[in-house]
Amino acid sequence: MNALEINAVSKRFGDVVALREMTFEVRAGEIFGFVGSNGAGKTTTMRIVLGVLAADSGEVRWRGEPLGLESRRRIGYMPEERGLYPRMKVGEQLVYLARLHGLSAADARRSMEAWTERLGVAGRRGDDVQKLSLGNQQRVQLAAALVHDPEVLVLDEPFSGLDPVAVDVMSDVLREKAGEGVPVVFSSHQLDLVERQCDRVGIVSAGRMVAAGTVDELRTGGTVQLLVDAPEAPDGWADGLPGIQVVGREGTVTVLETEPGADDQAVLRAALATGPVREFVRRRPSLTELFRHVVADDQKEDTR
């Protein structure tokens, strides 16, 4: 099975526990969003996958086998920090990196030309990296991850600093690589992008995976919001309804959260009892809202 597996990986830096039996997999042809607060363990996990750091325990496997030097050469990695040589020309640098991964000189040049063209930086091949804008440096960084035709992609904050056009280009590239069967994992704080782009999402808190699945799966069993536009409803009209919590009011619209099993029809009846109801909408939480709930619940568990 062409899956990247992270199995019970733990890592400690002195008294700081960075990872606690981190476990998840990225399947062939899947885009997996890896999200968490700063310091949650995302970058540490990626560095262990790359072999930059050694795990204290646990294992990283690719195609069912432990990752070694040769298999790691088939990974395309994009670090959050700029990982390019600032005084080296873009084209020369990409050819150099491709050759380090085993491509011939001719194949490395062809690949460099193709990816700089695709990512919109072909006109900057002769420029030093340090002379590029941050957005163009990010495009070159992605080209460096792709230039050797990797079998796995591991990207740390790949959309950081990109304009909307560049975001679309990068999104298309990631979806194209996934379509070729490449497992793609990327971290991002831009949860709206993660929600749109990813097949599955893993939420990390305090060094461990606390929830994973499609966004719809993560929503299952969680709270549902009701938006009720009842212009004549007084304050407190929904108080006392079982499984219902008022979380806000925006003009004549009351925002409610329902617990699993709560009767939304009871909410509608209560609203109609106050007068006309102009709108009654069920809304599933966004990934941003799910993230807040999951991380908050995990932190509560840790303090018990």
From TrEMBL:
Protein family membership: Belongs to the ABC transporter superfamily.
Classification via PANTHER family: ABC TRANSPORTER, ATP-BINDING PROTEIN
Protein name: ABC transporter ATP-binding protein
Gene Ontology terms, MF aspect: ATP binding; ATP hydrolysis activity
Pfam family, one: DrrA1-3_C
Keyword Nucleotide-binding: yes
UniProt keyword annotations, A-Z: ATP-binding, Nucleotide-binding, Transport
Alphabetical list of InterPro entries matching this protein: AAA+_ATPase, ABC_transporter-like_ATP-bd, ABC_transporter-like_CS, DrrA1/2-like_C, P-loop_NTPase
Keyword flag Lipoprotein: no
Residue ranges of every copy of the ABC transporter domain listed in the record: 4-231
Biological source species: Actinomadura craniellae
